[in-house]
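Journal club side-thread
Mid-discussion, someone asked how the predicted structure for our own chain would compare to the paper's figures. Pasting it here so we can look after the session.
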Amino acid sequence: MAGVDWALTVVFAVLALPCVLRLVRLDYVRLGQGVRNGDLAELLLVVAMVAMLSPVGGPIPAAGWQAVLVLTAGWFALAWWRGRQSGCAHHALSAAAMLYMVTAMPHEGMAHGPWLTMSTMDTRLAVPVLAVAAAAYFVFDAARTGVAMVRGPAAAVSGHTSRAACRVVMGAGMGYLLLAAAW
């Protein structure tokens, strides 16, 4: 299992690169604030996934990630509710699902200390039906986005292919993690 944890850690760490490259390109005047916010959310969620999956843990305690994820989910839920930005519902759901994973991790005995490490979990998440429902959403979204990316003229929009590819990998990874932790 440690090999899978390390492999997923590397995959998610690699996903940080296109997020950072899109952010430093600074073409958000043309693309809009919503795209920038989405790219920032993707980077934050990728870093959180690396921290959760890394067998060595992360430098931020679980409570710190809970605070960040509550703020992220709230920000995007409010933006979605106001209807100002596209993709906000997905980012709100992603942050909420990650918040669920962090919060629903077993804390008996605190074998992992205050650090966020799913790789040392030997029991399932609390309320596994939520994990299965969220996994179904992420797997469906990853498949839908992947098909749209292959069929559509995604390369015409700056960074769109990169965003779609990241969404596919993140969705598949989230689905896998949620299902693995639910059993």
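Post-session note: The CA atoms of residues 5 and 53 lie 6 Å apart.
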